[in-house]
Write a structure and sequence with these properties.
alpha/beta, Aspartate Aminotransferase, domain 1, Aspartate Aminotransferase, domain 2, 2 domains, 13 helices, 13 strands, about 10% strand, globular
Length: about 425
């Protein structure tokens, strides 16, 4: 099927979109700006503003230290239980703490110590580089007793699922992957990889940063072991918002947090000089949680729960298919490549388009065309679809402005050097 390139087609799709009204629940200060970067930083929910005011003026300003007994202390579990509903976990299997990288480090070290006698770690070359840095640091910490094996993607787009499974044996301690990879948007079959790893006794740790809130995930059905993820992308938790971690219930007492601290102590106000881990997931807390930024995550999560992840995924699939059809009709003749899977079932909620002048096109799109995507080397222009607030007209406008930039060579005035943040 060839999709219509007329804007009236996009307008009609928006008119018939049952989730379109959620766009009004976000702060949009400039209606002329097209925001296609919700896969990096989500928009600000309207409800977050009065919540921030409540946290600062009443809870902090009026209640002061009493706020800890008014709900601050249990906020990591409370917000974690809400996130659990988005990723198919039990309420007591998810907790909010620290950053994604710190949570990854905690769970990697805990898993490797549990899996003594096994020396291999499997990942792929599509994983987020920061995850690889964490793995390298964990290996150093554990006296280089483990070997990190990075399985290559067959095409730079699709994850090497068969290659990973072929390397599984009784020496593999841990398989750790991004469920939805950051460049191409390829999404693994979480249940199939987990089942294959379990057949050889390996544990699996999933990074859900580009999945949580946009792709249905059922950790419980898959009997997934471990997971981490951020809250500032599709969950709209705010810049630098704390991350979450998941540990399957039966593993919680077997794993030990390598960064022990006050908040993970069994009796934290006993002030004992010897550390005794708390039961359950609180043992994976370390220092005092950032109460304000942690609490602000709730507004975005509540919007996702209200909309329903199945409905959001259906809209995301429809929108990404529309974008791919427009690419094929409008942009492919201008030298753009599709750097994401064609199969909608194998991709998350962002589409990567490649072009030899990708960086300069990205800069022209931002500065001249008032469209905000992001860029990932060497040539990926990532277009994030956040179905809570991305409209079909946003997608149409983005594609037409990309066409104008290349057809009129508007990118030629920009340098080849990348800015600090892309």
């Amino acid at each position: 099927m060839t999709v219509s390139t007329d804007v009236t087609y996009a307008v009609d799709l928006d008119t018939r979109d049952p989730l379109a009204h959620f766009r009004q629940r976000f702060v949009i200060t400039n209606p002329d700006l097209i925001y296609m970067d919700g896969n990096s930083l989500g928009r600000l929910p309207q409800a977050t503003i009065p919540l921030a005011d409540e946290l600062i003026q009443r809870q902090w300003g009026d209640r002061l230290i009493r706020g800890w007994n008014d709900g601050w202390f249990t906020a990591p579990e409370r917000v974690g239980a809400r996130i659990a509903r988005l990723i198919g976990a039990r309420p007591d299997e998810v907790i909010v703490a620290d950053s994604t990288s710190v949570n990854l480090f905690k769970l990697v070290v805990a898993a490797l110590r549990l899996q003594r006698g096994r020396s291999r770690i499997l990942t792929d070359n599509l994983n987020f580089p920061s995850d690889l840095y964490v793995l390298q640091g964990a290996i150093d910490l554990l006296d280089r007793q483990h070997k990190l094996e990075i399985v290559p993607s067959p095409d730079g787009i699709h994850g090497p699922a068969s290659g990973l499974q072929a390397r599984l044996n009784e020496q593999v301690a841990l398989v750790t992957l991004s469920h939805t990879v950051f460049k191409s948007g390829y999404t693994y079959d979480l249940a199939a990889i987990t089942e294959a790893a379990h057949a050889t006794g390996a544990l699996v740790l999933w990074d859900l940063s580009h999945s949580a809130g946009s792709v249905p995930v059922d950790l419980r059905a898959a009997q997934a072991d471990l997971a981490i993820g951020c809250t500032y992308k599709y969950m709209n938790g705010g810049p630098g918002a704390p991350a979450f971690l998941y540990v399957r219930r039966d593993l919680q007492e077997q794993l030990h947090n390598p960064i022990t601290g006050w908040m993970g102590q069994n009796n934290l106000f006993g002030f004992d000089l010897e550390y005794q881990p708390a039961s359950g997931l609180r043992r994976f807390l370390t220092g005092t949680p950032p109460v304000v930024s942690l609490s602000l995550i709730e507004s975005g999560v509540d919007l996702l729960l209200e909309a329903g992840l199945d409905r959001l995924r259906a809209k995301s699939e429809q929108q990404s298919a529309y974008l791919v059809e427009l690419w094929e009709t409008v942009l492919e003749p201008l030298g753009f490549t599709l750097n994401s899977p064609r199969d909608v079932r194998q991709r998350g909620s962002h589409i990567s388009l490649g072009h030899a002048e990708g960086l300069r096109i990205d800069l022209a799109l931002i500065n001249d065309m008032h469209v905000i995507p992001d860029f990932r080397a060497p040539d990926n222009i990532r277009l994030g679809i956040a179905p809570l607030y991305t409209s079909f007209r946003d997608i149409h406008t983005t594609v037409m402005r990309l066409r104008k930039i290349v057809a009129e060579k508007l990118y030629e005035k920009y340098p080849q050097e990348a800015p600090t943040v892309t």
